[in-house]
Design goal:
The structure is a single chain. This protein is of the alpha/beta class. It has 2 domains: 3-26 and 61-255, Type I PLP-dependent aspartate aminotransferase-like (Major domain) (Aspartate Aminotransferase, domain 2); 259-398, Aspartate Aminotransferase, domain 1, CATH 3.90.1150.10. Helix content is 38%, strand content 15%. It has 13 helices and 12 strands. It has a 7-stranded mixed sheet with strand order 1-7-6-5-4-2-3, with helices on both faces. Strands 8-9-12-11-10 form a 5-stranded mixed sheet, with helices on one face. It starts with a helix and ends with a helix.
């Protein structure tokens, strides 16, 4: 089955719902059973971890199971578990895999709330975290200890966009009995196949491209067969579940994800290429551009790119950068990404970096290229650059 066909069919069972093409929204906490025999059978099936078996709303229903089945199939994993946010998915996965006295290696390019969860929360319970250079590759072996249980990767980093050598890291990790956990939100289930590259647990912030319309928050963890019982138990122990209405929106978004992603990809490369040639730009950080340091790894391991990348401006006064952002009409100033709309946020990773100095002095901006016409987006950025130059020149004259 080709991937576009998988996107349309995965997790769908119209025959169970009177032929309705979309899995319905099933709202409910209590699940009734018609007899003691049925009750005992359902308990047995749930205890045996049979997919779709549920005795209570917290263990999921048909709506939950449809999304979990679809994402596991698309990522090539064994089973998936849905969570109410991307961070909830990260936290539950790490909680399930780590115990007091364990050691985890965390890439320096990781999503900052994940870093905070490991250092602030897991650290309180006796888990030690070491930050490593995202470009370590097979050199990760130098940081592994006898108690290293997890190597956490994020490729590319969602701000700094380093591409990691996941197969090399996975080979080393498995040689030492450690699991590889990956934030695969940028790659999505379409553009990076984690289990083909040695990943044991893949995390998606489904809020982004799976939902795709900026109207729901969800996270999904997909596992290989060995890790699955630990993740499932962590979700149950923590009482983690997600609302069926949000899951329905994710199922809706999933069906069109390929079409949307191809447009995001094409538009982002066009805008990034234009920015790369602009006189006020120091560097564009987009893995699909030949100028990116990780471009060859990206070509080797990824099947495409999404709409998220970063740009570093040449040094400008703060007021000039503010004028640039405030002049934009089609780029919203806001966090998150993966929806239909274009977004921009300023960021500065220099204070968080542990393994290497951030090499740029100008303002870094993270852009998400939405589904607007690229001519309008480029015109919008041109308007921002004009406003920036005007303020910079005024300040230079005043000085």
């Amino acid at each position: 089955m080709k991937e576009n066909t998988q996107l349309v069919t995965a997790g769908r069972h119209p025959e169970r719902f009177g032929g309705v093409v979309n899995t319905p929204v099933v709202r409910g906490s209590t699940v009734l059973h018609g007899s003691m025999a049925e009750w005992e059978d359902k308990k047995r099936r749930r205890a045996a971890d049979e997919a779709g078996a549920s005795t209570y709303g917290r263990f999921g229903n048909a709506t939950h199971h449809a999304l979990e089945e679809a994402v596991a199939e698309l990522e090539g994993g064994y089973r998936s578990q849905v969570f109410p946010s991307g961070l909830a998915a990260c936290a539950a996965a790490l909680t399930g895999l780590l115990s007091a006295g364990d050691h985890v290696l965390l890439t320096d390019s990781a999503y900052s709330p994940t870093r905070g969860f490991l250092t602030r929360v897991m650290g309180r319970f006796g888990v030690e975290t070491t930050i490593y250079d995202p470009l370590a590759g097979e050199g990760i072996e130098a940081f592994i200890r006898p108690n290293t249980k997890v190597i956490y990767v994020e490729s590319p980093g969602s701000e700094t966009f380093e591409i990691q050598d996941i197969p090399a890291i996975a080979t080393v990790a498995h040689r030492h009995g450690a699991r590889v956990v990956m934030d695969n939100t940028w790659g999505t289930p379409l553009f990076f196949k984690p289990f083909e590259h040695g990943v044991d647990v893949s995390i998606q912030a489904a809020t982004k491209y799976i939902v795709g319309h900026s109207d729901a928050m969800l996270g999904i963890v997909t596992c290989n067969q060995e890790a699955w019982p630990l993740i499932r138990q962590a979700a149950q122990d923590l009482g983690q579940t997600a609302g069926p209405d949000d899951i329905y929106l994710a199922l809706r978004g999933l069906r069109t994800m390929s079409v949307r992603l191809r447009q995001h990809e094409k538009a982002a490369i066009e805008v990034a290429t234009w920015l790369e040639a602009h006189a006020d730009v120091e560097r564009v950080l987009h893995p699909a551009l030949p100028s990116h340091p990780g471009h060859e790894l990206w070509k080797r391991d990824f099947l495409g790119s999404c709409g998220l990348f970063a740009v570093v401006l040449k040094p400008q006064p703060k007021a000039a950068v503010t004028a640039f952002i405030d002049a934009l009409q089609y780029f919203g100033l806001g966090v998150s990404w993966g929806g239909f709309e274009s977004l921009i946020i300023p960021f500065d990773p220099s204070g968080d970096r542990v393994t290497a100095r951030w090499p740029f002095d100008g303002q870094a901006l993270r852009l998400h290229i939405g589904l607007e016409d690229t001519c309008d987006l480029i015109a919008d950025l041109s308007r921002g650059f004009a406003a920036m130059r005007q303020v910079a020149e005024s300040q230079a004259l005043a000085a």
